[in-house]
Amino acid sequence: MLLIRCPWCGPRDETEFRCGGEAHIQRPPDPDAISDAEWADYLFMRRNPKGPHRERWVHAQGCRRWFNVLRSTVSHEILAVYRMGEREPET
Amino acid sequence: MKRYSIFALVRNAISRHRDWPPLWRHPDPKPRYSVVIVGGGAHGLATAYYLAKEHGITDVAVLEKGWLGGGNTGRNTTVIRSNYLWDESAAIYEHSLKLWEGLSADLNYNLMLSQRGVLSLAHTLHEVREGVRRANANRLNGIDAEWLTPEQVKAFCPVLNTSPDVRYPILGATLQRRGGIARHDAVAWGLARAADARGVDIIQNCEVTGIRREGGRAVGVETSRGYIAADKIAIVAAGHSSVLAGMAGVRLPIESHPLQALVSEPVKPVLNCVVMSSTVHVYVSQSDKGELVLGAGIDGFNSYAQRGSFHVIEGQMAALVELFPIFSRMRMMRSWGGIVDVCPDASPIIGKLPVEGLYLNGGWGTGGFKATPGSGWVFAYTIAKDEPHPLNAPFQLDRFTTGALIDEHGAAGVAH
After folding, report:
1. B251 in contact with A at a CB cutoff of 8 Å?
2. Rounded to a whole number, what is the distance in Å from the CA of B98 to chain A's nearest CA?
3. How many Å lie between the alpha carbon of A60 and the closest alpha carbon of chain B?
4. Considering CB atoms only, which of B300, B302, B400 is closest to A73?
5. CA–CA gap between residue B390 and residue B396 (Å, rounded)
6. What pLDDT sits at residue B353?
7. What's the pTM value of the predicted model, to 2 decimals?
């Protein structure tokens, strides 16, 4: 089980959290102006990297706030935790 | 290939079983092949087998980074069924089930297919309605499906706790009697032996590290054993679909997750069918060795690590004991994880990629084992003819652009 450091509550067990998938996906500012392929890319295509992965988590059983995690998908090691709107820390 | 038969058994018994030939050769890779299949799991081996058998294409190499069947082929819970909701899925999974039914004889290799029935329980009013709907949809598609009342469930699988006095009482179940289990290692070995006999080169410990492109066309693969040129490159790499497609610059709607399973100590025959429950959430069958084989939902985070978190299997065990109080003192012997490539609509992608000469069979997510022969059969057709067969035409990558998704989260039976 992962030990995740919530930016507001501190280190808690993984069971208190839900993983929200890839972070930093921006909704296209003008959906009418883009092609179906670009819309599909926003909606469905994912980086799914083997290595460091930026992802969103929510402290569902705690403060219920969302934040970002940089975590390795190979070792599961959490490399950084940063709040929504913050820049990813240097690692 | 030396055929297996009662006479071969007697002959080899006389020589004390010292003269059985190896199941397949271990050739060094040639510099060039017509078709290179990346991934030596059962789907890749089935693709090679049907390329040779149905289309006469034998200049084929199967490249496997580890050992044959060491990925999801050896890590699944071996359940076979075809009771999917939508017409497109029903057609391809039923085609696969029909191939399973003749595959042992076809390969001259005992896959130990046991059509003992797959019971999918309903615990809520919604599940009852969905179950009846799916059974009716299956029958309209020519797939055997029945709806059982709680009394009929109890008669079919006596060790289930069908008491109404539990948190999620069993309100009924769908039953596919032709569903069941098969021996997963035998599937890999039998397909490898048959493909090898038709001239396919099976190359283990050969990891693909890059896909070389010239003029927008895929022309070969870089591997840990050198460069191999190919007219056609077929990716059948399950959990690593995104990684391999990424080598050719193609983005996929796939995320890789751990899916864990575990087995108990072996006991005498006690569970006569496959039982699946989506609400309490576990699926379980008893292997021929006597072990309970069980699994449930995926871990929520992306991973390539072939392991997951303990609380996920703890939840499976709680569900098992809820459904089968008789198993409460059983000890679990081993647990493991496989990496499943999950599509947003829980259906696979089988077809051509936007790069010429590159093909993908992936995104099977949590339920690929049951599709093994059908998957290989349609993929071999797609590679040989350079166009999808009508059975896999709906399962192209462009459905995520057109919006023609095939939503099978309900029939997948695994939470994700």
Report:
1. yes
2. 33
3. 13
4. B302
5. 11
6. 97
7. 0.96
Q: Which of A19, A49, A74 sits opposite B305 (nearest CB)?
A: A74
Euclidean distance between CA atoms B16 and B31, whole angstroms: 40
Q: How many CB atoms lie within 10 A of CB A8?
A: 11
Residues from chain B contacting residue A18 (CB–CB below 8 Å): 300
Give the pLDDT of residue A91: 58
Chain B CB contacts of A76 below 8 Å = 301, 303, 305
Two tokens at B352?
């051509």
The answer to whether B314 contacts chain A (CB < 8 Å) is: no
Q: Are B204 and B5 a contacting pair, CB within 8 Å?
A: no
Of chain B, the percentage scoring pLDDT greater than 90 comes to: 97
CB A17 within 8 A of CB A58: yes
By CB atoms closer than 10 A (0-12, 13-18, 19+), residue B71 is buried
Note whether B315 contacts A: Cβ–Cβ < 8 A: no
Give the integer Cα–Cα distance in Å for B382 and B348.
14
In whole angstroms, how far apart are CA B144 and each of B86, B136, B138, B141? 15, 10, 7, 9
Q: What is the pLDDT of residue B414?
A: 78
One-letter amino acid for residue B252 of the chain: L
Query: Which 3 state secondary structure label does DSSP give B260?
Result: strand
Token digits of residue B150: 């709680």
Three-state secondary structure string covering chain A: CCEEEECCCEEEEHHHCEEEEECCCCCCCCHHHCCHHHHHHHHCCECCCCCEEEEEEECCCCCCCEEEEEEECCCCCEEEEEECCCCCCCC
| Confidence (pLDDT) at B332 | 95
Q: Percent of chain B having pLDDT more than 70?
A: 100
Please, what is the end-to-end C-alpha distance for chain A in angstroms? 23
In whole angstroms, how large is the CA radius of gyration of chain B?
A: 21
> String of b and e for B392-407 (b: at least 16 CB within 10 Å)?
bebbbbebbbeeebbe
Taking all residues of chain B, what is their mean pLDDT, rounded to a whole number?
A: 96
Q: What is the pLDDT of residue B382?
A: 98
Please name the amino acid found at residue B218: A
Predicted confidence (pLDDT) per residue in B310-366, tens digit: 999 999 999 999 999 999 999 999 999 999 999 999 999 999 999 999 999 999 999
Give the residue on A whose Cα is nearest the Cα of B301. A19
Average pLDDT over residues A47-59: 97
Q: First CA to last CA across chain B, in angstroms?
A: 43
Sign of CA dihedral B27, B32, B34, B35: positive
User: How much is the pLDDT for B413?
Assistant: 77
